[in-house]
Every structure is written in C-alpha cells, then in structure tokens.
Amino acid sequence: MVKKYALPVVLIALAFLFPLIDPLLEAVLGKSLLFSAIVIAVYVMLALGLNIVIGFAGLLDLGFVAFYALGAYVTGWLASSHFKQVSFSFLSAAPTETVSGNAVPGIHISFWIILVLAGAFTALCGIIIGAPTLRLRGDYLAIVTLGFGEIIPRFFQNGDDLGGFNLTNGTIGIKAIDSPGLPFLPDSLPAWQQFGTLNLNPWYYTILILVLITVYINIRLRDSRLGRAWISVREDETAAAAMGINPVTTKLWAYALGATFGGIAGAFYGAFIASIFPTSFSFNVSILVLCMVILGGMGNIYGVILGAIALQGLNFYLLPQINTWVHRIGDAVGSPLLSGADIPKYNFFIFGIILVLMMLLRPEGIIPNRQRQEELHSGDDDQSITDAARA
Q: Strand pairing of 87-90 and 275-276?
C-alpha cells in the first residue's frame, strides 16, 4: 500500500512546491518555467480527456480540438463584453461598473461557474456529435471525427454574421476576457482576489487542482463498471454486445466524458490567455494531443501524463534551448546556416520522428497499459514458439 501511493504523493508534493522552486530554476536556466508549466498542465488535461476516448474505449478521435475550442468560446461568451447588447453580471471577480458608474456591457459570470457550464456544454455537444456517428467503426469513425474537428473551428472563424448576429467575432476573435478570482478572500491576498499576469501562482494552482481532479475521475472511471464496459468494447465489440453491453451507449459515454475535460481545459485556457482566436484551434492541436496519448501509452493514465509533459516540455523548453545552442555554435564557427537556424519551426517534424521510433521500438508507449502491452507482444511470443518448433 505504501509503495503504491508513495510515488504519486511525492510527485503531487513536488507539483505544489513548483512555484517555490521556479525562482531557483530561473536563476540557473535564465528563464521562468511557470508559464510553460501552466500550458503543459492544460495539455495534460486534454490528453487525459482524449485518453478516455482512445485509451479506454478504443475510439480513434481526430477532432478532439473541437471540444477544446467550444470550451474556450464558452468563456468568451460568458466572461467578456462580446455581447454588448446585454449587461449581466453574476458573482464575477471583474468590475461590474465602468468609471462613469454605468453597468459594464456584456455577460460576466463567475469563472468557477463557467468551468461547470463549459464541461456540461461540451458534453452535450459530444453527445450530439457522437450519437449519429458512433455506430461507425475504425477508419470510418476517424474520418467523421476529423470532419467535425475541421467544421467547428471553421464555424467559429465565420460565425461573425449568422443572419446579422455576431456569435464568434470571426477571425478577430473575442478579446478582453474577464480574469477569474476569489473576491471573498481578504485584501492581504490581492493576487487571489483577481488573477493577473504579474503573479502566475493562482493560475498554476488552479490548473493543477483541475488536473488532479481529472486524474482522480479518470482512475475512478477506469475501475468502474463503465470502465470495464469500455475495455470490453475496445477489445471485441461483437463479444461485448453478445454479453449484454450496449456498444453505442457505452461509446457515447466515453465521447461525452472525454469532451467534458476537453471543454474545461479550453475554458481555463480562454481565461488564461484572455483572448480567443479561431486559429488557436487548428487540426494540429488534435494531432499533438493524440501524439501525447500514443507516446505515453494509450489507456495508462500516468503514461499519458508523462507523454504530455514530454512533448510539451520538448516544444516549450528543449527545442528553443537547442536553437540557442545551435546559434552559439554558428556564431563561434562563423556559419550563417547555423546562426540563422530555426529549430522550433520543425517541431512537428521532430514529433513525427519520435512517433516513428516509438512505433518501431516500443509501440505500447513509454508507460504501457498492461493489456495493450500483452496484445502487442503476443504475436512476438507466438513467433518465437514457431521458430523454436521449426528449429
């Protein structure tokens, strides 16, 4: 029991202490890692949501970015002055009156309520999208989800004139989104009363708690009756149906719950960057999150977390650091090619190479799911027995 919980407790403790360690890392590395840690945590949450769909239920979803975008736009609609024709505020940490004393235009709802609403809205959208499509299997389902992943961002890009109604503000996006906060806290904690950009600690602890809640729910779902039904459908849908499991309903639950976490991650990200643009939700995001799940180990919660941290850590820190080293070498040897290199531009090329190597050397992922590992290597064992018999 102690061994089982020792490592998670230590990692959680280090995660909570990270804002205290970050100044020391900044002194050594010359760069604060807190902003990068927040964005990485958002992608950890996205990867955990997609892992429910792909890892637990075995559904290939190539359009997961749609739920990420929907969650972000819920924040834009309910925590900004986008809808200037109305003036409504409810428990928001943002100012409710202008300097002249007039009510601030737009809808301004508490960020904490928006998280719940974003999760519920994206779950509903997941059901609406999934209901007519989840009877499909394999490549056909992947193509349909890819279509939805392309439709939703295009809809947001062109949603500034829906019969004269501006829903999304088009390519300009929704800006000046309200910052979350806890206004009931004492004045001695101003950074927590309303989150700002100068002190990122409140943002970090908020997304950390959201990630921990996501991990806990993922573990409970995996070990639940529904989780066992997902595994049955993933292993053999026909056999699962013969045993009384409704494959469509079971897969719909996976789609809805995965969408919920994608929407909550999007709602947080929209508030964090305070501006939402449709170009932020391209197809590349879906592929990046899918790479995290595959790299870490489909179906393994801790493997998916490691995969997300590894890829985004490579993207946010290691590639820019390598770029700096290459520039220094180029300046030292007088090579214009090295001095002008832009290594981070080739991030998806590098991710592709990593995935190819993983598929060749360790197809089950860094921390594999035990069942999936046995499936992938059962053929090797059979081949070994055959070769031995022939010898």
A: unpaired
